[in-house]
Recover the amino acids of this structure.
């Protein structure tokens, strides 16, 4: 992954439970991320309160998944 130019930001178990790894990239260096994502300081971050989503084990990336209706 690093060979392709991606940066890796490690998160701990508690941060994973808070869905901090579940973000949406919208441009180079720009993401939509759960509020309180201090790990992404070097990025342009749009913080969104997703407390209601994370209670059901969902997150921003999951919320924006493509839905195909018949």
């Amino acid at each position: 992954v690093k060979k392709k130019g991606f940066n890796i930001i490690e998160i701990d178990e508690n941060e994973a439970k808070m869905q901090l790894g579940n973000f949406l990239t919208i441009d180079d260096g720009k993401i939509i991320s759960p509020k309180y994502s201090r790990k992404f300081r070097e990025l342009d971050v749009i913080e969104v309160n997703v407390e209601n989503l994370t209670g059901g084990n969902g997150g921003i990336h999951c919320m924006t998944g493509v839905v195909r209706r018949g």
About this structure: The chain has a mean pLDDT of 79. Helices lie at 13-17, 51-54, 60-63.
